[in-house]
Amino acid sequence: MNKKYLLTPLLTLPFLLSSNAHANDLLSKKINYQNKYQTMLNNLISKDIPGAVLLVKSKNHHFLGSSGYKDLDKKNPMTTDVVMPNGSSGKKLTALLIAMLADEGVINIDIPITKYLKKALYSQIEYSEKMTLRQLLNHTSGIFEYNDADNYAFFKEQFAHRNKVTTDMFPLKFALNQPAYFKPGAGHSYSNTGYALAGVILEQLLQQHPSKLIRTKILTPLNMASSYSKGVEEHKPELASGYFINDADPAFPLEMNVWIDTKKIIGTTATSDAPLASNVNDMAKLLRSIIKNNKVVNKNVREQMIGEKNLIKSWGQRFYRSSELYYGLGIWVEKVNGQKFYHHGGTEFGYFTQNIYIPDGDVSITAFANCGVNERCENDFQSFTFEVLDSFLNIKSSI
Fold first, then answer.
1. 358 backbone dihedrals φ, ψ, rounded to 5°
2. Whether the Cβ atoms of residue 52 and residue 367 lie closer than 8 Å to each other
3. 3-class DSSP state for residue 90?
């Protein structure tokens, strides 16, 4: 017998043992990784948070899990493919469409908005002749926030119109003939009104609801098959129930300490400050496509949205107290300890979304909860997403 056949097993055995050990080690790490995030999800569920979904995707790991209930009445368990309204996290979708149209020369985001509006409307907006679309989108316009209208005026109207589809003029009317917070470009104040007004401009310019172009230019090309513009597109897959409880303010125009399913209320609002309903996979895909090179979002559009020269110093939804926080168009950029990540959360009555992307490691973190506009829900959910984020950045222990 040829000696080489006797030697081969002796030579390969250590290699095989080493390979098996490495594979077992990787499997063990994967199991620990899966168990870690599922345990965190399970611990998040409480009387204040009925259900939640988490996606964590990186070069080395993939976790998709859920916990709790998506329907409290029927006790249907939360599922990983659930579709929820994304609140302000959808602002990046409106900003992306406008940046794309600007790149095509259809619209100019650096000229006064009076070019795109009728005088009957812009005359009711202080400093409109000096206000630009860019300022509406990066929150430097100074326009009055419609949620600040007296005595919960907007919320009362929203609940009163729960069976009627409402578009951008609906919230905008609560900001008309109101004093600006500052002159355009003189400060930074987060503004839902700015995005509602941007939506009105889009609709008047395009002569159709922005959802039409959002579908053809963004959702379909990115294969966001479980996403839609709520209110004006077919809700397929169906929205999950969302739960709101007024447990803090006797002046709020709803009975106290009663859980309300808000699906039919939020599902009829087709506004550009909170346009999107999606699942966690689609939401992660949208943010990642804005940040990382792909065939749908080109370099010029990306530069307009998150390029260094187009970022403005911001305040608001930072994760780390010591970080530098900037806002582009529809996206926060946070820098801490030499690391950079992108995010935008969103709350609506009954829903909470957090959407994060870390370029180092190609990490996407997207989480949904079916509660919102409630302090205990929001505090617990923010703490949860922070712990997931810091499991990658490992900054908490060093600051």
1. -110, 115
2. yes
3. helix
Nearest Cα residue to 86 out of 219, 250, 282? 282
Q: Is the pLDDT confidence value at 219 over 90?
A: yes
The closest of 175, 198, 189 to 142, measured between CA atoms, is 189
| Separation between Cα atoms, residue 118 and residue 121, nearest integer Å | 6
**By residue range, what is the domain housing residue 182?**
45-398
Q: Look at residue 127 and tell me if it is in a domain.
A: yes
- Classify residue 33: in a domain, yes or no: no
Question: What's the pTM value of the predicted model, to 2 decimals?
Answer: 0.92
pLDDT at 263 over 70: yes
**Residue 383: inside a domain, yes or no?**
yes
pLDDT score recorded for residue 398: 65
Read off the CATH number of the domain in which 169 is found. 3.40.710.10
- Say what the alpha-carbon torsion angle 128, 130, 132, 135 is, to the nearest 10 degrees: -100
> Using one digit for the tens of pLDDT, what is the confidence trace for 308-351?
999 999 988 899 999 999 999 999 999 999 999 999 999 999 99
CB-neighbour burial class of residue 21 (10 A; exposed 0-12, middle 13-18, buried 19+):
exposed
Structural domain contains residue 257 = yes
Report how many domains make up the chain. 1
Which residue in this structure is represented by tokens 């709101």?
244
Please give the Cα distance from 353 to 254 (Å, whole number): 23
Residue 177's Cβ-side half-sphere holds a number of Cα atoms within 13 Å equal to 2
pLDDT tens-digit series, residues 82-120: 999 999 999 999 999 999 999 999 999 999 999 999 999
Integer Cα distance of 87 and 280 in angstroms: 13
Distance spanning both ends of the chain, measured CA to CA: 67
